[in-house]
Amino acid sequence: MTMLWLKQLTKLLKRNFIKGKKFENLTQLKCELFDFVNWYNNRRIHDSLNYLTPVEFRKWQST
To answer: Could you list the residue range(s) of the whole structural domain that residue 46 is in?
Structure first.
Protein backbone atom coordinates (compact mmCIF):
# COMPACT_ATOMS: atom_id res chain seq x y z
CA MET A 1 0.00 0.00 0.00
CA THR A 2 2.77 2.44 0.86
CA MET A 3 4.55 1.96 -2.48
CA LEU A 4 1.31 2.57 -4.38
CA TRP A 5 0.71 5.80 -2.47
CA LEU A 6 4.28 6.90 -3.15
CA LYS A 7 3.94 6.16 -6.87
CA GLN A 8 0.69 8.13 -7.04
CA LEU A 9 2.27 11.06 -5.20
CA THR A 10 5.28 11.05 -7.53
CA LYS A 11 3.03 10.99 -10.60
CA LEU A 12 0.90 13.82 -9.22
CA LEU A 13 3.93 15.99 -8.47
CA LYS A 14 5.52 15.34 -11.86
CA ARG A 15 2.32 16.04 -13.79
CA ASN A 16 0.97 19.01 -11.82
CA PHE A 17 3.95 20.64 -10.15
CA ILE A 18 7.35 19.88 -11.70
CA LYS A 19 6.60 19.50 -15.41
CA GLY A 20 8.09 22.37 -17.38
CA LYS A 21 9.42 24.27 -14.36
CA LYS A 22 12.96 25.26 -13.56
CA PHE A 23 13.80 26.31 -10.03
CA GLU A 24 16.55 28.80 -9.33
CA ASN A 25 17.42 27.28 -5.96
CA LEU A 26 16.19 24.99 -3.21
CA THR A 27 14.42 27.83 -1.39
CA GLN A 28 12.30 28.61 -4.45
CA LEU A 29 11.45 24.91 -4.84
CA LYS A 30 10.40 24.67 -1.19
CA CYS A 31 8.22 27.80 -1.38
CA GLU A 32 6.48 26.70 -4.56
CA LEU A 33 6.00 23.17 -3.26
CA PHE A 34 4.44 24.56 -0.07
CA ASP A 35 2.06 26.66 -2.19
CA PHE A 36 1.16 23.66 -4.35
CA VAL A 37 0.44 21.42 -1.35
CA ASN A 38 -1.67 24.16 0.21
CA TRP A 39 -3.63 24.55 -3.04
CA TYR A 40 -4.02 20.78 -3.44
CA ASN A 41 -5.21 20.21 0.12
CA ASN A 42 -7.38 23.30 0.59
CA ARG A 43 -8.47 24.94 -2.66
CA ARG A 44 -8.55 22.20 -5.29
CA ILE A 45 -12.00 20.96 -6.28
CA HIS A 46 -12.40 17.27 -5.38
CA ASP A 47 -14.87 15.00 -7.14
CA SER A 48 -15.03 12.85 -4.00
CA LEU A 49 -16.25 15.92 -2.07
CA ASN A 50 -19.17 16.58 -4.40
CA TYR A 51 -17.02 18.95 -6.50
CA LEU A 52 -16.29 21.27 -3.59
CA THR A 53 -12.97 22.40 -2.20
CA PRO A 54 -12.06 20.86 1.16
CA VAL A 55 -12.69 24.24 2.82
CA GLU A 56 -16.15 24.49 1.23
CA PHE A 57 -16.88 20.88 2.14
CA ARG A 58 -16.01 21.46 5.80
CA LYS A 59 -18.28 24.51 5.87
CA TRP A 60 -21.08 22.52 4.20
CA GLN A 61 -20.68 19.70 6.72
CA SER A 62 -20.87 22.03 9.68
CA THR A 63 -24.16 23.57 8.61
So the answer is: 26-63
